[in-house]
Amino acid sequence: MGRSARKRRSRRGGHAKAAQREKSAAGKRAALPTERREADERVGKSKAQVAELERRMAEVLSAETPVQRSAELLCEQFDRRPVTRGLAQMLAGHATSERAHAVAEAATRKCPATLTALTLAADVAYELDCDQARAGALLEQARLLADDAGQRAELAERMVDLSRAADALELVAGQLLEDPRDQTAQCTFARALEIAHARLDAHAGEGWSRRGNRCPCGSGRPWWNCCRRAERMALQRFGDRGRLDRLREALSAWIEREPAVGVPAERATEWVADAAGAEPFELGLDQELEAVATMAVEHAWLAGVEEGTEAEDPDADAPLARFARDPDVPPELAGAATRWCSDAAYGVWQMHDPRPRPGIWLTDILTGMRLYVAVPVAQLRGVARWTALLGPLVPVEGIWRTGAVLPLTPAEADRVAEIACRTANTIASAVAGKHPRFKAPKPGREQPHGVLASVSEPVPPEVADLFADVLGSGIPQLVAELRAMRGAGPRLTNIDGEELCIVKAHVEVSDPARTARLLAAHLDVELEDDGVLAWWGRELDPEHETLLAELRERRSDEHEHEHALDEDAWPQRWVRARIRPVDGGFEVEVNSSERMTRVLELLRELGDEPAVREQLRLEPVQGMTTLRLGGVAPFGGSQEAIDSWLRDWPDQPVPALRGRTPRGAASREADRPRLEALLRELEHHACRLTRAELPAPDVQALREELELPAELWAP
Predict the structure, then answer these.
(1) H or E stretch including 399?
(2) To 10 degrees, the CA torsion angle through 192, 196, 199, 200?
(3) How far apart, in whole angstroms, are the C-alpha atoms of residue 111 and residue 76?
(4) CA nearest to 658, candidates 645, 672, 648
(5) β-strands 370-374, 360-364 pairing
(6) Are 309 and 318 in contact, with CB atoms under 8 Å apart?
(7) d(Cα 109, Cα 39) in Å, to the nearest integer?
(8) Where are the alpha helices (DSSP H) in 240-263?
(9) What distance in Å separates the CA atoms of residue 271 and residue 274, rounded to the nearest whole number?
(10) CA 512 to CA 515: how far, in whole Å?
(11) Which of 82, 437, 641, 682 is deepest in the core (most CB within 10 A)?
(12) Which of 271-280, 287-296, 637-646 is most confident?
């Protein structure tokens, strides 16, 4: 049958088999389970509602819509709730400022004394007229009408715009108590606290006047005699870990009186032993293992007593849950225990900037969750930019606080995230009765989780819960792997697996001319153009194929087909040594002590008695700046070495970039996340060096040269 016939049949409806397949498919669709059909109907209804909302909003903003009609639509759509922030600017942008004023006035007439009319009028006053006093007065009226935490949180956002920190903190507190993970409330809370923090700092020195600086709340009084006290108390409350400490103490005492609850101390002993591995340790001298012991106890508080048993609520027997249900426990502590049980979030919490103002934004690089956290000063000692904290965060009275945590470098954080992803995938596959689909990446090709977390959408709650469970229960194994990785340190080897060591030696022989002729005649020695005798090693069949495969893959990724790959031009053998004839003998250069020994053995086989007169040894690892956290910075300890590195590094192939140069990686969108991860690791170590008053590279200057600003990945 020709192609045209097939086309004609397709246009007429196709073969009978195709019709039969369509009929069968229709039957299957009709037989879908009720739940599936209902879910599809809900999705369709939701899409229709979104489309209708978009249509109505377009009609509101259109300059062709009568003012009264726009006001009616707004009052219907927001139904006495606050309007969306920025709506006044949108109205003015689609038409004129005068029309925005007219719509706000019409809304006030249409639905007077409602949050809808008052917030729109306040936005017009603030955004279009720059009249903070009128905007504040309108928001005060709206404040009296807000009857739930969500509405008060929306008003708090506008209070922050007016720099009314004390009012905003009071309004947003209820929403944070109800849902401490609410991102909008978190942002409002952080902005208000930072305004109060900056204002108190500005008034802490000399030269300020108590009578100046009228309070932004609109009272007409100086800020010092008005909202200062409320803002200061809010900051003190934010930094006060007293309730969390009291909860710990009360829970520990309660567990001692309740033998049936279990012994968390046993869990601590097991975790510390697992984390330490075969390495000997003394708990009092190892801060990391002390933190692991504390984390073990905290995790035991969250775990049910009878693990592995079937229960409707597997955490109902957790010590924290039983403590919260005890009628003798004070209500404030019972409430804090309940929150810890329900909302504790284990993660790998990355800090963009470790300077508290007064809190720090932390991003879980596994889930993308971002929280404003009160981190105690003791946990910030020694941390640098891009440090990540492994461990739990706990909300207490709406404020997120750290439990016991372990600081990680950016590379260590990515490693932990990679292991957690692999473990979570294995668990999810096992539960579903499937084989894991997760494919372990090649060395050096792990995902840069810390970079991608700032530009990715947060994962669904059920996935976040799985990651939290994996991290919480797997901390001792994760710490053991990190300690092993740090303890191993860098090990550089040559193609034969020997410790890399550059050796240059002057070797004397009794008859240099004769020995040189015999060397040149050796099957594995080749006389090069400059007179150097190159002693070649074995054929590199496996390495050669691996190298070519990697090169083919890279060229395929980069779509480089302009020039054919000359595979025969690549070396088939590896150079063991370079031997240059000189007066009295030879200058020998090798890259390991073992190869130097083999050169001397070769000369003996040729009938001479070599003697090493001068020798220079260079061990590359010793030239690296080794840092306390186990990372190795690829620059020397002097400013001259750093300047040299900064000049050369952008155009040098880097293994972490799959052999590409940093400049080449910066030009390819697919490679930029890995380059950013590498720059963050360098920035982290440079920050630590600077703090120790040691020379460090200017990573910001390096970013500018590579045209890769940090703002591309801003959290």
Answers:
(1) strand 399-402
(2) -170
(3) 9
(4) 672
(5) antiparallel
(6) no
(7) 41
(8) 242-257
(9) 5
(10) 5
(11) 82
(12) 287-296
Tokens of 600: 């001397």
- Cβ atoms within 10 Å of 415's Cβ, excluding its own: 19
211 within 8 A of 223, measured Cβ to Cβ: no
Q: By C-alpha distance, which of 199, 197, 203, 192 is closest to 162?
A: 192
Comparing C-alpha atoms, which of 642, 286, 627, 641 is closest to residue 490? 627
610, two tokens: 């070599």
The DSSP secondary-structure symbol of 657 reads: G
- How far apart CA 575 and CA 150 sit, in angstroms, is 72
Confidence of residue 4 (pLDDT cuts 50, 70, 90): very low
Residue type at 400?
A: W
Query: CA end-to-end span of the chain, whole Å?
Result: 60
DSSP H or E stretch at residue 345: strand 345-351
Any residues with CB less than 8 A from the CB of 213 and at least 6 apart, and which? 203, 222, 223, 224
- Inter-residue contact 324 to 334 (CB < 8 Å): yes
State the residue for tokens 């700092």. 201
Q: What is the pLDDT of residue 623?
A: 42
At 384 the pLDDT is 92
**Burial environment of residue 72 by CB neighbours within 10 A (0 to 12, 13 to 18, 19 or more):** middle
**In this structure, what token pair is assigned to residue 139?**
């928001």
Which CATH code of 1.25.40, 3.10.450, 3.30.70, 1.20.58 fits the domain covering 40-205+213-234? 1.25.40
pLDDT tens across 446-490, in order?
689 999 998 888 999 889 999 999 999 899 999 888 888 776 656
487 burial class (0-12, 13-18, 19+ CB within 10 angstroms)? exposed
Q: Six-digit token pair at 373?
A: 């956290």
How many helices and strands, by DSSP H and E, does the chain display?
Answer: 27, 14
| Strand 370-374 relative to strand 399-402, pairing | parallel
* CA torsion angle 212 213 218 223 (round to 10): -90
Judged on CB neighbours under 10 Å (0-12, 13-18, 19+), 280 is exposed
User: How far apart (Å, rounded) are the C-alpha atoms in residues 313 and 323?
Assistant: 16
> What is the Cα–Cα distance from 433 to 364, expressed in whole angstroms?
29
Helices 115-123 and 132-145: angle between axes, nearest 10 degrees: 160
Strands (E), 158-222: none
Largest interatomic CA distance in the chain: 111
